[in-house]
Amino acid sequence: MKPVRRRAAALALLAAALCAPAIAQPPGGQPAPSAAASFDYGLRPRQVADGVHVLVGRSEDFSPANGGNIVNTGFIVGSSGVIVIDTGPSKRYGEQLRAAIARVTPLPVVLTLNTHHHPDHFLGNQAFPPETIAALPQTAAAIEAEGNAFNENMYRLAGDWMRDTEVVVPRRQITPGRRTVGGRDVEFVALGGHTAADLVLIDHASGTVFASDLVFNHRAPTTPHADIRRWMDALETLAALPARLWVPGHGEVSADASPLAATRDYLGWLQRSIDEAAAAGLDMAETLARPLPPRFAGFAVAEHEYRRSVVHLFPAAERAVLEAPPERRD
Ligand SMILES: [Zn+2]
């Protein structure tokens, strides 16, 4: 048993990690909300390839200042309809995304994807036709099971931006494969690791890959539902795709695969570092206090996400050491 004093210190640090305030970061791709009172996200779709538009969120944590706009969403305009990739963190965001799409094209939204069940990716669903909202089966089930808890938490983190936001569970199931949607040649790839089910969309005409939260760019990955080894395998699968443009779940769009390698590097280091700390007999407080390698120092919210990840991942690493056969303990 560890001394009670150390347990208390670990608990204090754990509480600090869970309650850490949003960390201010330099602005990301979107302009700051012009005035919080107007609840205008200032969404400006950027055309990154023919018919492919992306809205890059800020590289921050959720806060009342950003209204939860820390996520990338996008849409693809085909010859007969529009595919929407994720709906953002709130009803207001969804409505403003829908309006932004309408400024680009009069075509109807024919498919609205939720790439995974995290709140910033599906809480804008109310603004879209319910019959168009689709996800992998496990994602729909997770939204049904956990959506309300996520929604309540988002009200706490982002405040009035969330007003009237309610969970809409995707009705349509996505099956992996290549097909024509809205006149566009697209492919659905079912992967996992960031969550139990992470949906990737390939637009074959432009070579654009919407990589969901399997890829972060210059922003520390979040791991509350992560299976790190599966996630690293998924990144290997993605790296083999013939992509010309990568749209990560968070961070800037990239013309090369460097964000995949960086995400993989970070995750590998994170798991190794936590496993080594547990094997060396460190407790959670000591693990939380370890410095990040300089190569990750430039990632937005790195310290904050490291603390969250240790809180999520350390107990299992510690258990694995304690449950290992005695000969493997030293
Ligand atoms: Zn996520």
Automatic annotation (TrEMBL):
CDD domains: metallo-hydrolase-like_MBL-fold (cd16282)
Superkingdom of origin organism: Bacteria
InterPro entries given in the database record: Metallo-B-lactamas (IPR001279), NDM-1-like (IPR050855), RibonucZ/Hydroxyglut_hydro (IPR036866), SoxH-rel_PQQ_1 (IPR030811)
Pfam families recorded: Lactamase_B
Residue ranges of every copy of the Metallo-beta-lactamase domain listed in the record: 70-250
Signal peptide: 1-24
SMART domains named in the record: Lactamase_B (SM00849)
Keyword annotations of the record: Signal
PANTHER family: ACYL-COENZYME A THIOESTERASE MBLAC2, METALLO-BETA-LACTAMASE DOMAIN-CONTAINING
Family: Belongs to the metallo-beta-lactamase superfamily. Class-B beta-lactamase family.
Protein known as: Quinoprotein relay system zinc metallohydrolase 1
Species this chain originates from: Thauera sinica
